[in-house]
Specification:
Helix 1 (about 5-25) runs antiparallel to helix 2 (about 35-60). The chain is mainly alpha-helical and about 70 residues long. The termini are far apart. It contains two helices and no strands. The protein is about 75% helix and about 0% strand. The protein has one domain.
């Protein structure tokens, strides 16, 4: 299994985990509860990390542009 395939598997899982963490944090009262605020920040970071993994996996499979000389 190549690294790009692994990124395509782990990226969406990290995105879903981050969104789930953010949902739990918002329901817990962000701004009033320090734990919920920390969970919101962690969820955003996890979702962004998953998005970056997936984006690099997709970009790594694309052929290089032939327009540049």
């Amino acid at each position: 299994m190549s690294a790009l395939a692994l990124f395509m598997i782990l990226g969406p899982i990290a995105i879903l985990a981050g969104v789930a963490t953010m949902t739990v944090a918002v329901r817990g009262g962000v701004g009033q509860n320090p734990r919920s605020t920390a969970m919101l920040i962690a969820g955003m970071m996890a979702a962004a990390f998953g998005l970056m993994l997936t984006a690099f996996a997709i970009a790594g499979r694309a052929p290089l542009s032939q327009g540049a000389n």
